[in-house]
Amino acid sequence: MIKFILRRLLLTIPTFLALTLVTFVAIRLVPGDPVEVRAGEHGISPERLAMLRHEMGLDQPVIVQYFQYLWQLAHGNFGTSLRTSGPVATEFFSLFPATLELAFCAMMFAILLGIPAGVLAAVRRGNVLDHGVMGISVIGYSMPIFWWGLLLIMFFSEWLNLTPISGRIDPIKFYFDTPTGFMLFDAWWSGQEGAVWDAAQHLILPTIVLGTVPLAVIARITRSSMLEVLSEDYVRTARAKGMSPLRVVGLHALRNALIPVVTSIGLAIGSLLAGAVLTETIFSWPGIGTWLIESINERDYPSLQGGIMLISSFVIVINLLVDVLYGAINPRLRHGR
Amino acid sequence: MVAETEAVAATAPKRPGQLADFWASFSENRGAVIGLVFVGVIALMAIFAPFVAPHSPIEQFRNFTKLPPVWEAGGNWSFPLGTDALGRDALSRLIYGARISLFIGLMVMSVSIVIGVILGLVATFAGGVVDMIIMRIMDLIIAIPSLVLAILVVAILGPSLENTIIAVTVVYMPRYVRLVRGSAMSEIGKDYVTAARVIGVGTFRLMFITVLPNCLAPLIVQAALGVSDAILEAAALGFLGLGAQPPIPEWGAMLADNREFIRSNPWIVTLPGLAILVTVVAVNIMGDGLRDALDPKLKRG
After folding, report:
1. Which residues on chain A are in Cβ contact (under 8 Å) with B136?
2. CA gap B42, B44 in Å, rounded
3. CB contact (8 A) between residue B235 and residue A144
4. Distance (Å, rounded) from C-alpha B125 to C-alpha B199?
């Protein structure tokens, strides 16, 4: 097992190095000289320009610059934001909990609805229920979620006045410190009456929007995996023993059917973060997605570079964990190629 | 004797061709046929847009801004689906938008297939370091969240229709490379490939003429589903203002442009999204049908 983990760890090193190379090259391809961007619109003297260039290490050979970049990354320095002049990593980690909270709720929504829907569809195979679940699932994973978000806002916020349109909490009614950055927790911690409920209301629509595609995918995978398992011998044996259908499905079949579902959930983290960019933009959710779009609109390329570096590292680490966990559950994979 | 044989041959059922076989299997799936019909209609509309659309997609009728569709009070039959804030005909923009979206989808798919086939086969046949480098790069691209990578590419190249195609291709191409490599790897050990090698078939011919045709089925399925992914991704970029620039009638951009009128004129916002959804659903159920028909092993339930 340890050998397996070590091998997977070693395999991620070239991926990480390639990632640093991509972000390093990308920032140099972006139009606009970083020195002039920092110096501002108005021209400055050539001496001052050369000095700035030297300060930023841009007069060094490219290879040296790359190793300096790696050195900085190794020390947790992901660059300086042009907008705020603060370190990119600090900004990133102050906003990341908002995105994580949203992504977590969306995943929970997708799992809690998707697995039962998939099981029901498999058990009632070929029936109206099955066709209904599959039909909705096709629509779900074909959904342009930015439009879906606008529709939900139109319906629930504009017409029915049930949910707030944007943000994470009503800033007029509530004011409290956010030590963790997870609003539901911070609201509860603050002890202010109605704060948790308000935060939850803000979460509902974004959760549905971000959870829709994973919900459709999970329902589909659960159904097909369940169908496969239900035709296995041990399920037939359990049935023949006279076990109740509920026990057969719930106890014997579901446990084995869930393995591919769990894997797909782990691997969906990347697409969940991509969806978060759109969801956050629609609901003005103050997370990484909104921050990335703002960075690009204001040509804050260091933030973009650092942000992409951090997000991708997160995805690589999660995928590594999924692999290791999967190897722990399934020994065949560990010893395979 | 000859006549006898001919008579027997005539009565024997004709061996169905590959295409007929495929069609028989495809048309069994009602949903897939409906998808195909929808895709066909949308494609025809896109091709003949100048003849189908009542107006130019960029002409501004300043006296008719923010008109509702005909079935609502105040609708006007010269603008069946209403107009946007600049007085442009919504129906015409939607029809021309089909052109943009399908064009992006097809371009991304064809470029991805070409690159995917070449890189996938080269990785398989070269093996060793070349294989490792190609596959590590693909792993890396897959590790970056799709939309985030597309945003990075657009940041470097600048927002435009062409760059949308490049960005989305970069994002989706690794799937094709992995797929081609995966199926080529499983073919390369088979006897027919060894036989071809033994009789002295060159590597190039071996790659493209001996092995490639046997990897086509999963590739076609991926291509169909890849078109819908590309359309969605491009629309998302358009929505973020990073795709096709105004006045190009791109569906995602149309949504974003009219977002502020969501309360007063819900139709301007609803219709472009509906167009995206219908197109993507149609392509997806057609792709599912293709998968079931071409690749019985993958058949789900």
Report:
1. 14-15, 18
2. 5
3. yes
4. 18
Task: Measure in Å the smallest separation between the Cα of B112 and chain A Cα atoms.
Answer: 20
Give residue A190's pLDDT: 75
Is pLDDT at A29 greater than 50 in this prediction?
A: yes
pLDDT at residue B301 is higher than 60: no
Closest partner CB to A304 (pick from B152, B276, B300):
B152
Residue type, B75: G
**Average per-residue pLDDT in chain A?**
82
What pLDDT does residue B1 have?
Answer: 47
Mean pLDDT, range A93-121, rounded to an integer? 92
* Whole-number Å distance between alpha carbons of A196 and A202: 10
DSSP secondary structure string for all residues of A241-297: TT--HHHIIIIIIHHHHHHHHHHHHHHTHHHHHHHHHHHHHHHT--SHHHHHHHHHH
Which pLDDT tens digit goes with each residue over B11-49?
555 555 777 877 887 888 888 889 999 999 999 999 998
Per-residue model confidence (pLDDT) at position A209: 94
Q: In chain B, what are the domain boundaries?
A: 37-49+90-298
ipTM metric:
0.83
Report CB contact under 8 Å: B255, A278.
no
Helix (H, G, I), strand (E, B) or coil at A200: helix
> Architecture of B37-49+90-298 per CATH?
Orthogonal Bundle (1.10)
Query: pLDDT tens, B222-236?
Result: 888 889 999 999 999
Residues in chain B within 8 Å Cβ distance of A292: 148, 151
Please indicate if any CB of chain B lies within 8 Å of the CB of A136: no
Q: Which of A150, A152, A303, A317 to mutate to test the interface with B (most CBs of B within 10 A)?
A: A150
B270: closest chain A residue by CA:
A151
Q: What is the pLDDT of residue A143?
A: 93
Residue B296 has pLDDT above 70, yes or no: no
| Residue type present at position B139 | D
Q: Among A120-124, A327-331, B48-52, where is mean pLDDT lowest?
A: A327-331
Is residue A279's pLDDT more than 80? yes
Chain B residue numbers touching A157 (CB-CB < 8 A):
none
What residue spans define the domains of chain A?
A: 88-334
User: Are the C-beta atoms of A32 and A299 separated by less than 8 Å?
Assistant: yes
Instruction: Report the gap between the CA of B279 and the closest CA in chain A (Å).
Output: 9
Nearest in space to B176 (alpha carbons), one of B124, B109, B232: B109
What residues of chain A, 169 to 228, have a C-beta less than 8 Å from chain B?
Answer: 220, 223-224, 227
pLDDT tens string B254-292: 888 888 888 878 888 888 999 999 999 999 999 888 888
Sign of CA dihedral A190, A193, A194, A196: positive
Domain A88-334 has CATH 1.10.3720.10: yes
Q: Residue A148 and residue B158: Cβ atoms within 8 Å?
A: no
Chain B interface test: which of A17, A23, A82, A147 (most B C-beta within 10 Å): A147
Could you say which DSSP state residue B213 is in?
A: G
Does A301 contact chain B (CB < 8 Å)?
Answer: yes
> How close B132 gets to chain A, by Cα (Å)?
10
Contacts of B155 in chain A (CB under 8 A): 26, 30, 296, 301, 304
Other C-beta atoms lying within 10 Å of the C-beta of residue B88:
23
Task: Tell me the C-alpha distance between A66 and A48, whole Å.
Answer: 24
Q: What are the backbone angles phi and psi of residue B79, rounded to the nearest 5°?
A: -130, 80
**How much is the average pLDDT of B177-205?**
87
